[in-house]
Amino acid sequence: MSWSIEIDTNTCIGSGMCAGVAPDHFELVEGYSKTLQDRSEPSEEVVDAAESCPVEAILVKAVATGKVVAPEE
């Protein structure tokens, strides 16, 4: 199983929470979040990063099903 990681660049405010929580998956580039890879194996760090985003700009979905993994509603 793999996950897709999407960042809504129009929503991102560049807080850096994602890069702080999951530095192996996110970085800040010119003040905005960027994924290091568009896909990831399931990782608690990725979920924590999506959940910690103050504007919910990160969307994590299961590739096979399209089911939203994070953020939880």
UniProtKB/TrEMBL annotation:
Q: Which UniProt keywords are present, listed alphabetically?
A: 3Fe-4S, Electron transport, Iron, Iron-sulfur, Metal-binding, Transport
Cofactor needs: [3Fe-4S] cluster
Family annotation (SUPFAM superfamilies) = 4Fe-4S ferredoxins
Enumerate the PROSITE patterns for this protein.
4FE4S_FER_2
Q: Name one GO molecular function term.
A: 3 iron, 4 sulfur cluster binding
**Which parts of the sequence belong to the 4Fe-4S ferredoxin-type domain?**
3-31
- A Pfam family annotated for this chain is Fer4_13
User: What does the record give as the function of this protein?
Assistant: Ferredoxins are iron-sulfur proteins that transfer electrons in a wide variety of metabolic reactions.
In Swiss-Prot or TrEMBL terms, this protein is called Ferredoxin
* Species for this entry: Saccharopolyspora karakumensis
